[in-house]
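Design job #97: recover the sequence.
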C-alpha cells in the first residue's frame, strides 16, 4: 500500500514516544460516527467539540460553514487538532446529501420530529450526527432531510445542552454502544494507513515539506 510505505518512511523523523502513541491509538480509530457541525460560531465550542470527538476515538469532523468559520481555540483543544481531520463543506443541503451518499445515515441531534432518546438509539450502521448552531439548533431544512432525530434526555428545567456538551455526550454514548456491540466499526486498512500518514505529518514541524519531497522523489 502506498500510504503504508509513506508512513514507514515518515516514522524515522518521529520521536519514539510519538511513534508509540500513533501505533497504540490508531487501531481504535473509527469514522463510524461522523460529527457534522452547522456553522458554530464560538471558538471555544468548536475546540471543545474537537477535543471530545478525539477523546472518543473518532478522528474526523465535518464543519458546514456559511456565516462563520469553524475555528477551534488551540488552548482548549489541548493538541486534539493534531489528530482530528477537519473537512469544511458549504452549509447547505447539497453537503448533507453528499455525506449521505458516502454511506452515512443522517441523524439530526434535536428533540424535534418524534426524536429517539439517546439511550434507546440502535446503532447499526454508520451515522452522521448533525449538531446545530448555538442559538437556533439544527436548521429546519436539515431536520426535514434527516433520516432520524436524536434527543438527549433532560431532567431539569433546562431543555437543551450547550452544543459542545451535547456533542460530547452523544459521541461518548455512541462509542460505548459500539464497544458493547459486535459491529466492525474500526477503520479499513486503507483508511488506517492514510490516517497514520496524516498524524505523522502533523507531528512534525516541517511535516508537509518532508512529505512533499518524499512523494516527489517516489513518483
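Job complete. Output follows.
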Amino acid at each position: 500500500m502506498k500510504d503504508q510505505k509513506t508512513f514507514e518512511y515518515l516514522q524515522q523523523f518521529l520521536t519514539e514516544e510519538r511513534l508509540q502513541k500513533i501505533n497504540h491509538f490508531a487501531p481504535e480509530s473509527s469514522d463510524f460516527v461522523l460529527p457534522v457541525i452547522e456553522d458554530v460560531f464560538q471558538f471555544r465550542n468548536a475546540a471543545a467539540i474537537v477535543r471530545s470527538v478525539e477523546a472518543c476515538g473518532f478522528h474526523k469532523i465535518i464543519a458546514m460553514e456559511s456565516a462563520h468559520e469553524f475555528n477551534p481555540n488551540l488552548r482548549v483543544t489541548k493538541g486534539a487538532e493534531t489528530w482530528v481531520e477537519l473537512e469544511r463543506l458549504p452549509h447547505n443541503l447539497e453537503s448533507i446529501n453528499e455525506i449521505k451518499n458516502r454511506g452515512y445515515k443522517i441523524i439530526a441531534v434535536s428533540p424535534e420530529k418524534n426524536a429517539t432518546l439517546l439511550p434507546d438509539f440502535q446503532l447499526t450502521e454508520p451515522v452522521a450526527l448533525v449538531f446545530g448552531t448555538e442559538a437556533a439548533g439544527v436548521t429546519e431544512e436539515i431536520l426535514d432531510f434527516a433520516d432520524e432525530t436524536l434527543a438527549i434526555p433532560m431532567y431539569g428545567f433546562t431543555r437543551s445542552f450547550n452544543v459542545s456538551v451535547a456533542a460530547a455526550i452523544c459521541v461518548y454514548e455512541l462509542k460505548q454502544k459500539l464497544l458493547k456491540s459486535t459491529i466492525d466499526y474500526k477503520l479499513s486498512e486503507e483508511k488506517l494507513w492514510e490516517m497514520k500518514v496524516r498524524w505523522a505529518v502533523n507531528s512534525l514541524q516541517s511535516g508537509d515539506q518532508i512529505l512533499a519531497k518524499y512523494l516527489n522523489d517516489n513518483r
